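Table 4 source record.
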Amino acid sequence: MAELKTKKNTASPDAFLNTIKEEEKRKDAFAIVELMKKATKSEPKMWGSAIIGFGDSSYTLSNGKENPWFKMGFSPRKQNFALYLTGTKAENYSELVGKLGKYATSQEDNKGCLYIKKLADIDTKVLKELFASHAKVR
């Protein structure tokens, strides 16, 4: 069986985020770190080369193997921010996402990924609430 490629490592999340050339995107990334840090009460850790995760969790594959993962995380991709709210969704998930503002998601993506271009496109109070609700169910 193939080994999990995306693993927690000792790379610096701050150093990674400081490589973002666009100033607004870099500021947004650091703001997302603070929101997730507060919601999970966990320090950011690098997972692979481009994901910042918060807290420790796991998921079980169809073959019964359990893989380590994070409670929530994000990746500042070129096109957008991928926000990973994996696992069980909060009861008020749909309601909060409906008030979030401009976002995208993939219908086949049952892993809870939201995609936003920038924080200015969304209601950060709702995002904060969404993160807090998600952190409680994980």
